[in-house]
């Protein structure tokens, strides 16, 4: 990429509990280049969101720290904008006003015309200029997320932090937004850190995929470089050997970790007797719910 400007050094964090400190993260080390797109992937509870929140300044690391362009990150700031899975738009403000709110907080001293031009520019990036006067309740989930991205971009962040931004959307809408994000990243060259549970999304969008070990005391397990040329076309990549190799590498990592979790869990839950209830618990996830659904459909 370019020059390294974001560093996580020996990052760890403890959370207080009634039984004493809980170590969520330990010894997380990562250097990210300017303009790089990095995805964090791993099982639930592996500390992905905690890493993102520390970079955002929403959590303070217990050990180590985050350095952005030579300055330690100690609190939230406009140079690090966050896009959450929930769009977090203010429901009483229009699309335009939601973006304007961010612009007013970061462009003090600019004229109204300059602000309006900048708002329109960012809404144009996400293809939402047609809905300026709509309230959030009047647009779809995908459109809301586009406005959330426009609001974040309007702050001119050095780093765009995305916490499963497309996780709540249907597959087709998610694909359109992924394509839009690739276009925006190509145009602006922002550094992006994105959390995802979607392996295909991670491979399609990323320059590197950071795979997290399971917690507690979670840390980085492996880092995979994605050396696919840009711009990327999802249809062309569907049969690409290199793409499928990267996909296999991530799935192998996640499968091995999940298998270890299941093994430990099953040992911990072993019972000395095998009654009907314990046999039911030992069945694969979803069996009992499927039977319930079947009974409901029969009754209907």
From TrEMBL:
Q: How does it sit in the membrane?
A: Peripheral membrane protein
- Ranges annotated as biased composition (Basic and acidic residues): 289-300
Question: Where does the sequence pass through the membrane?
Answer: none
State the InterPro entries in the record: AAA+_ATPase (IPR003593), ABC_transporter-like_ATP-bd (IPR003439), ABC_transporter-like_CS (IPR017871), ABC_transporter_ATP-bind (IPR050166), NO3_transporter_ATP-bd-like (IPR005890), P-loop_NTPase (IPR027417)
Where does the protein principally reside? membrane
Give a GO cellular-component term.
plasma membrane
* Protein name per the record: Nitrate ABC transporter, ATP-binding C and D family protein
Q: Which organism is it from?
A: Alteromonas macleodii (Pseudoalteromonas macleodii)
CDD domains recorded:
ABC_NrtD_SsuB_transporters (cd03293)
Keyword annotations:
ATP-binding, Cell membrane, Membrane, Nucleotide-binding, Transport
Which Pfam families did the record assign?
A: ABC_tran
Molecular-function GO term, any one? ATP hydrolysis activity
The uppermost taxa in this organism's lineage are:
Bacteria, Pseudomonadati, Pseudomonadota, Gammaproteobacteria, Alteromonadales
């Amino acid at each position: 990429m370019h020059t390294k400007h974001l560093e996580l050094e020996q990052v760890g964090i403890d959370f207080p509990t009634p039984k004493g400190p809980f170590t969520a993260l330990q010894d997380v080390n990562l250097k990210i280049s300017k303009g790089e797109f990095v995805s964090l992937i791993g099982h639930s509870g592996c500390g992905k969101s905690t890493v993102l929140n520390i970079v955002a300044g929403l959590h303070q690391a217990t050990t180590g720290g985050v350095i952005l362009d030579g300055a330690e990150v100690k609190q939230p700031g406009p140079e690090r904008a966050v896009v959450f899975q929930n769009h977090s738009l203010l429901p009483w403000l229009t699309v335009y006003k939601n973006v304007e709110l961010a612009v007013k907080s970061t462009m003090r001293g600019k004229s109204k015309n300059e602000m309006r031009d900048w708002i329109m520019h960012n809404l144009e990036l996400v293809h939402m200029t047609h809905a300026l006067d709509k309230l959030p309740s009047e647009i779809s989930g995908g459109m809301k997320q586009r406005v959330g991205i426009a609001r974040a971009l309007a702050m001119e962040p050095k780093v765009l932090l995305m916490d499963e931004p497309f996780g709540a959307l249907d597959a087709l809408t998610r694909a359109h937004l992924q394509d839009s994000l690739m276009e925006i990243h190509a145009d602006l060259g922002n550094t992006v850190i994105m959390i995802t549970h979607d392996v295909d999304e991670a491979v399609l969008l990323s320059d590197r995929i950071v795979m997290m070990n399971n917690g507690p005391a979670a840390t980085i397990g492996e880092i995979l470089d994605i050396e696919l040329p840009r711009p990327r076309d999802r249809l062309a990549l569907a049969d690409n050997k290199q793409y499928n190799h990267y996909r296999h590498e991530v799935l192998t990592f996640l499968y091995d970790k999940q298998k270890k979790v299941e093994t430990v869990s099953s040992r911990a839950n072993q019972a000395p007797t095998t009654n009907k209830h314990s046999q039911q618990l030992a069945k694969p996830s979803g069996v009992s719910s499927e039977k319930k659904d079947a009974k409901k459909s029969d009754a209907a």
